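Protocol step 4 of 5: obtain the predicted structure for the target chain.
Materials: sequence only (see below). No template structures provided, no constraints applied. The aim of this step is simply to have a reference model before the mutagenesis design in step 5. Sequence pasted as it appears in the construct record:
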Amino acid sequence: IQSPVKMIVMLWLLWCVYTPVMGQTTTSIDITLQEMLIAYADGPIQVDALVRALSPYLSGGTVDTQDITKAPLNTNTWSTKKSILVWSNGLMTDRNAVGDSFNSFVQQGGCVVEAVGFFEASDIGAGGAWRNQNVGPFVPGTAVTVQGRISLGTVHTPNHRIFVNVTTVSGTTINRIEPANVIPQATVLADWTDGVPMVVERPLPSKGRVIGLNLYPLDLPQYTGDALQLVANAMKWCIESSDAPTRLVFVIQPPLSVQATSLFNVSVQMQSDTGVPKAFDGQVISLSFERDPSGIATLSGTTTRVTAARGTEYSFQVSVDKVGVGYQLKASITGGPSPASSRAFDVTAGNATQLVVTTSPAGTVRTGQPFVVAVEVRDAAGNPTTIPPLTNLQLTILDDPSFGLAVLSGITQLTSDGVLSEYVFSELTLDKVGADYTLRATISDNSLAPAITAPFSVIPGTASRLVFITQPPSLVIAGEAFSTEVQLQDQDGNPVGVRGDLNLALSTNPTQATLSGQSCCQIATSTAMARYIWQTLKVERSGQDFTLSATLSPQGLGAISAPFSVVGGRTTKVVVIQQPPLVVSATSPFILIVGLRDAFGNPTTSPSSPLRLTLAAGPSLATLRGVTSHTMTATETDVVFDGLSIAMAGIGFIIDIELRGCCSARTIPFNVAAGPPAAIVFTVEPPVTITANARFVVEVQIVDEFNNPAIPAPAPVALDLDPCLGDCQMRGTTSLPVDTSSSLYRYVDLTINRVGEYVINATSGELSATSRLFGVIPGPPSRLVITEQPPRVVTAAQRFAIRLEIQDDAGNPSPPGPGKQLSVKMKTDPTGNGTLSGSLRGETEPQEATYYFHHLFLDKVGKGYTLEALIFPESWTATSNPFSVQAGPPAKLVFTRSPLTAHIARQNISVEVQSQDLGTNPVPLPDRVITLGIFVTPVENETLHGEVTLPTGGGTASVFSFDKWFLTKAGVGYIISATETGKGGIQPAYSTPFDIVYGAPTQFVFVVEPFPVYVGTAFRVVVGVTDTLGNLVAGDVGVAMMELAASPQGANLTGVLSKQITATDVGYEFNTLMITVQGAGYQLLATYQTPTRRWEAHSQVFEAGPPLAIQPDWLKPPYPAFGQTADSSTALMVLIGVGLFMILVLCVTGWAWRYHKRQLPPKMGIAEPEPLKTPPPPPPAQPPIPQQPPPAPSPQTQASAPQQPRHQFYDANQMMRMGVQPMIGGHNALLEALQAPVERQEVHIPQITHPAFATTPQPQFNSYGSSQHQPQYYSGSAASAQSPLVPPHIGSNGQPCHTTIR
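Step 4 output (structure tokens):
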């Protein structure tokens, strides 16, 4: 393997080859490919591809093939083969010869797997004996091509070896034979999904086998699933089935004798003809009777076993249920090896498990007539057997139609002798008539199932007596029918029918009453007529101890009934025994007595019948009070109703007395008089719901204690509302005078103005009444009212609230409905510039009439503010009461006068700071200290100079002036801050950006003096032009020159002595000057010539020292002077010294750099503002920062500052040559910076997020280091060299945040 790619490819090929093989299930018989053959009438190339595809499923080898288009099979070809796969897609060399050869193969026990084409009806199918004898399982058909996906469908024999590891078979183009009919001798193993047979098997009598596959093998590569596995399994099965056993043998015989139903074991083995055990997978071995001497025996237990792949012997556990001699068993496999017969064996009876009735009673038995019952002891299979000696058997009644009254007499218990199996119960009799009697035989320990006789009937014997089986009622009502019943019976009391005459009469008659409803009865002999009933007997006289007598002739049988009593007849009317008085007082009770009578007028009773009194006449609302109903008892005939009363006055009262379900009676008419006034009642109540200020009606009545209208009222009748608080009122006529003609008082014009729940109290003298509870609801909304006014004094910028209410005309809250718009605005503004802010709008909601505006704010101090509330679309408005706004506590500082746009360096600047509350109102700031500081500086290390701290004092001042401070460094975009540094809690102020510029040039001076100076060593000086305040400024275009103004004899000044000056240069450097003679008293003269003026400057007097003893290489010329030769030893010493010196310099420099880095401030070139506790908000009164370049200086500024370019720019390389680090914006550096070493440092650039600069573009800075690049300020819409720098972002912790640019 020469590369990983090749390795991966090789591993993939090995996986492709061995994965199908490893997925195979090991078969039970070793498969040798020499026993297989593939025969085809098709293209050999495609066949070779199929053979290779099948190889992994056939142990990885190659199967032999034969092209039958060239020659048929011969004996030499198939003599070593057991399995042949064959199909055709073309003409064979001789279809008949091919068919004959394949028939010979299967007749010799071979197995053929035939596929599409071989059993086609056309000329490409097999002929000869194969076709003529229908050897194949398919009836020859027509080849068709089925388009569309079709798959393996139902597998009818899923455990068959052909379907091992076969789950799915599917293809989109299927070539198969249709209609694919199957011969009767074949079995369909599986179908396609459309029901067409797919796999069919036919075992042949010759032990050969044919498997039909209704598919075209060369289609298999385009199938998905397990199609190749299916074909390979079919070929393997051919080999397995050809090695099947030929016979079955009992290797474990049945016992010679077994008990019925007892399990015993036998074993059957599959063997070859030579007796060698063989396996035969997937077959069913069945066990049955070869001989059954009983003819009805059943073989139970395990009677079938399915053979396994490696099994040869199979055990069965069975039982036989019937006793017999000479049983034999047979083991067989359908269509398989020859069956086997067992040796003969006997079956004996088992243990006793049940009793069986062998003789039952006859179908009909008379009472007292003897009969017999015989039972037999049997085992579970019904075979007769015995039970142990001295076991008791007993016979009892099971089903008794006499409901337990019958008695079984005779021999009902027997004892076993241990020999007999049958026992007889004799001389049995039953005494009660009935149908479907059954008897049950059991043994004493109940260990055997009982025996039950067949149902039989018992009929009566000879009649011997007459009996009253239904006695007359003990209490008979006179004149009402009653019944009685007699019966003829045998000696056991069973009814018997005979011929004769039956008579009934009163035997005992104490009141000489008459018995009616009886007649002489002619009776017959039927059993059904043994009972005789009289149902319409009557006795009209009452009495006690009556009896009846019944007689039967000519038999002379008779019977006397039990005694009974006769009482009055049924109640037919109610009578009034005592009437009410003709006049009854409403407050006086009275008595009423009524009685019950039968049809004969005799007192009678009506037990449990309710007797009820009701008013039949009188006022409709009158009620009869007292006990008005009574339930009659069994002995009552008269009832007294006392304590009756009628509360309502009136005339013509009549009481109706009703006995429910019977009859009724009425009293005579009578009158009821009313009592004195006792109460007031509301006859017309207030409505349940009343709209405010809507009229409603109330009516009351004066009544006696029983609510009868009483005249006159004791006093005028007045109404009042309860509860009625505040401005609540009930208006209208609320009091009426006494009326002598009526008890009714009606109030028709009442109104109530306030919403709420109320009752109305009515009074007249000491009488009073209260109405029902009712509610007053608001009317439709009609106005907007401010119910909670603003406070009289509001603090500026602090929250206050108002409450609005929508009301009806009566001033009740009335919801306007949802979706209406509410708003609040300022109506009167005494300051003219006040602002109302907060939650100023809202929307109405269902069922709400009151709304709060909690978050309102005013910012300006003033008196006489008013607010106006509005609801839309109704346009109702409401105006608040006037109120004042007072200043709040001091909260912030504001620059009321910021620096001018530009100031000259070192000149005093005047600013003014004011303390304000949150609403921008000026407020005193006592006992504090205000300090000015730089918030943004475009120049490194700049600070404020002068008086920058001012105590506020203890007075009322709110404005503080700073007039004596200044800045010294020119720059664009300075911003200063004013901070309270005393007690804290005050927001600082920030000025507008301003510039610091220099004045007009007034003098030419030495900026850097010549020092130190050594003969032969270059030294450096810097000259420049300054304004009157000493600020270094740019001059004009010209030439600067340097010469010696004074020198010792013979000294010369060498180096670059002249320099071209541009209009932007600031400070002119001469860094290659050199003195040739040692001495004191030297002085330099610098001249600066411009087109309009000549400038001169003299340096300080200085001394030129002797030449340096050792000079570093960088101070020496790069080569020896003309005419000199370098000494090698000297050079070596110089090199060693230089090396040591360089090491020392590097160490010192490294230490100094690390120390310097630790000492660096947070950012370079921008003054650090003092930390803020909270981000300063944008001062409303403070003018915004200009986004464009600031305007030109005012005339006053122009007068004090000479006209010159606002800013001076250096080329970056020029600045580095001057020893000056370029500053952001390229402004003039401090004079001290000119001598600072040139080094690259990190510069922190502020982000513009201060609220005052929210719209200012962020500065974008370019790197320096090339003479072609000028330092840039901004890139973007506001890019300009004039654009101001901006303050840093103040974070949530109050500290500035910076962005670092290297």
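Step 4 remarks: The radius of gyration is 69 Å. Residues 485 and 533 are 4 Å apart (CA to CA).
Proceed to step 5.
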